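Hello Y.,

Per our agreement to keep a running log of every chain we model this quarter, I'm adding this entry. I've kept the format consistent with earlier entries: sequence first, then predicted structure.
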Amino acid sequence: MQMQSSILKALTATTLTLSTIVNVINLTPAIAEPNPKTQQLNQVVLTLSGHQEPVRTLALSKDEQILASSGDDKVIKVWNPKTGVLISTLTGHSERVISLAMSPDAQTLASASADKTIKLWNPKTGKLIRTLTGHTNQVINIDISPNGQTLVSTSYDKTIKLWNLKTGQLIRSLKPGKISTAILITPDSKTRISGMEDGRIQLWNISNGRLLRTLIPPRPVNPMYDQARASAVISLALSPDGQTLINGGYDDSHQSLQETDGKNIKIWNLKTGKLMHNFSIGIGPINAVAISPDGKTFAIGSLSREIQLWDLKTVKVVNKLSGHGGGIYALAWSKDGKNLISGSGDKSIKIWRV
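Predicted structure for the entry above:
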């Protein structure tokens, strides 16, 4: 119980009553700050300001014409990532927005909230399409399949739900018995990958809801007590070829007692199911992981206030990006891999030329 309580305290905020108010408004104009050294690598191209609380999640459209951001201030901001201009601010959630997902055609933006709902928006017009209800606790993760047909959601109610994105109808509700703390859908839209609170990673068949495989991390060496186990999965990233999976977790540096294996980066070979690397970089929880479009580099964000870039082949740090005044909670690559977008606890979004 101590272990589960610690994880939930680290991941959750208090859930309040769902608001019925849904508006689309423009708030204080965004501040876009071009950096004069935009041609120099590892420099901030734009800083987007306007959120009143930490930015927890980002969603970039496939054509890179729309960037959505959200977080603890309960609103969703829609930006032009090329110019930094704020297009609109979407309101309607009564609690913090924890996760965002954009459909491949950029016609639908999904938002998941601690208010137990998922809202579907038209990001271009700012209009609310519909609200999905059914979860009985905070909705903590969502993803949209690359074919644009399915929305998957996870919640602290210990269910995983699959929805028809076009109609909003619930397709299936699964009860894995543990909280799924991170999810993503594979590029072929056939498999859902769920990271669990006990460190396991499950692969599910989307079409029939069957469990295909479970990746089980090693138990801690010389655990302080019998219930110690691998860290909860906080973040997930899959390589473009679908072969390499990276998950971020805790390293116990924020706790008085060792409760997990103390390893906050795990790299898996999905073809073999083998854990290839398991190590800690000693900076607390890994809140965000993102693999570059060419599959050669992965970026990680943590409470250290800097972004680290790693070579996926050698598993060594190749660069560090500093400039945020708070922890890094969200990362997204541009499709050419030249720019990296970050959302931070300092309430800002930065676009880096890397």
